[in-house]
Write a structure and sequence with these properties.
The protein is an alpha/beta fold. Helices cover about 35% and strands about 10% of the residues. The protein has one domain (about 40-275): Rossmann fold, CATH 3.40.50. β2, α2 and β3 (about 95) form a beta-alpha-beta unit. It is globular and about 45 Å long. The chain starts with about 40 loop residues before the first strand and ends in a 10-residue tail after the last strand. Belongs to the short-chain dehydrogenases/reductases (SDR) family.
């Protein structure tokens, strides 16, 4: 696809950020991608599904025949737009607001999703936050705990909540990051959580394969999502993604096919694996 090499400088003053405020808008709808019934009549729960990668996954899952439950923190306008896009594909979609770092919320949200949509076949653990700091000494105990609670505790909580509803053939897909493999000096706590997610994915896959549940992950590179302008300075936003071999940030619609593949029943001989849509960076992971 013919994408610009850079994006205009911009910042947002609150995480996890609003897609509605971004310029240009992230490409999440993949209008040229046609579904083929890979996920017909399945139900997927997607955390962080209101915008960015989560929204793109929701749309492409719907295009493949799935109904969607979108979990999000507080970005109500973005979540409404995701619901609209999924329904435009002819599928059902519900949006549930809350904090995945709260185990009680995860249990209730999963229960509500099953009650309203009838079943649960796919979990996409995608919610995350990041807070750059120049030095480890600048990372407060509160920030450290908050980042781990959202990024990795939330994945544990969601898996615990969905397992009683999952049957043989179910899929769990965890969002890691390229930073888990190459590190990031300004994102020490974030990259640490993403490394934990890789280990969690591999270990959970071994634990659940006997039950016929496949666990895999995706480790995106620099993707144009609301997390970027709500995290970095204008200067860093303008150069975001320029260092990868493709020379540009990726779009959420370019990442979503990885999640479609890993959720598809044809992906039956993969477990504990991580896919790497990262603009050509070789990370040997």
């Amino acid at each position: 696809m013919d994408e610009p090499k850079s994006v205009p400088p911009q910042v947002q003053d609150q995480q996890p950020g609003s897609q509605k405020q971004m310029t240009p808008q992230p490409a999440t709808e993949a209008p040229g991608v046609k579904g083929s019934g890979k996920l017909q009549d399945q139900v997927a729960v997607i955390t962080g599904g209101d915008s960015g990668i989560g929204r793109a996954v929701a749309v492409q899952y719907a295009r493949e025949g799935a109904d969607i439950a979108v979990l999000y923190l507080n970005e109500h306008d973005d979540a409404k737009e995701t619901v609209r896009l999924v329904e435009a594909e002819g599928r059902r979609c519900i949006a549930i607001a809350g904090d995945v770092g709260d185990e009680g919320f995860c249990r209730k949200a999963v229960g509500d999703a099953v009650a309203q949509l009838g079943r649960l076949d796919i979990l996409v653990n995608n919610a995350a936050e990041q807070h750059p700091q120049e030095s480890i000494t600048d990372i407060s105990a509160e920030q450290l705990e908050r980042t781990f609670r959202t990024n990795i505790f939330g994945q544990f909580y969601m898996v615990k909540a969905v397992l009683p509803h999952m049957k043989k053939g179910a899929r769990i897909i965890n969002t890691a990051s390229v930073t888990a493999y190459r590190g990031s000096p300004q994102l020490l706590d974030y990259s640490s959580t993403k490394g934990a997610i890789v280990a969690f994915t591999r270990s959970l896959a071994q634990s659940l394969i006997k039950d016929g549940i496949h666990v895999n992950g995706v480790a995106p590179g620099p993707i144009w999502t609301p997390l970027i302008p709500s995290t970095f300075s204008e200067e860093k936003v303008e150069s975001f993604g320029s260092s990868v071999p493709m020379g540009r940030p990726g779009q959420p619609e370019e990442v979503a096919p990885c999640y479609v593949f890993l959720a598809w029943e044809g992906c039956s001989y993969m477990a504990g694996q991580i896919l790497h849509p990262n603009g050509g960076e070789i990370i040997n992971g």
